[in-house]
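Working notes for the structural subgroup meeting. M.R. asked for a predicted model of this chain before we commit to crystallization trials. I am recording the input and output together here so anyone reviewing the notebook later can reproduce the run.

Input as submitted:
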Amino acid sequence: MHMPERTPAHHNEILLGTLVVLATFVTLCNSQCYFIPNQSLKPNECQDLKGVSHPLNSVWKTKDCEECTCGQDAISCCNTAAIPTGYDTNKCQKILNKKTCTYTVVEKKDPGKTCDVTGWVL
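Returned structure, recorded in token form:
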């Protein structure tokens, strides 16, 4: 049986298809991310929204429970705290503890009482 010869273009199509699937998976799994265009005038660093410079390819955590990465063209930041879902939003509220980067869900009228949560999104 003769197998058709695979061309470099065929390999590129396979790679592109794999990357599209991977990008879709990452987007679905981690929808709490955003990108900031790199505004730094220096080629080996990024400047965040507060004007702080970071070395290229460095990773840091913010006080808002985000992990950011300095890339050549942009800074990418993703939430590190699991966000509660599936709770009674009329009766309850979520509260972020910035020291531990965790949420608790408590009653609005009595914050000493926790509420049931059926799901978490990261």
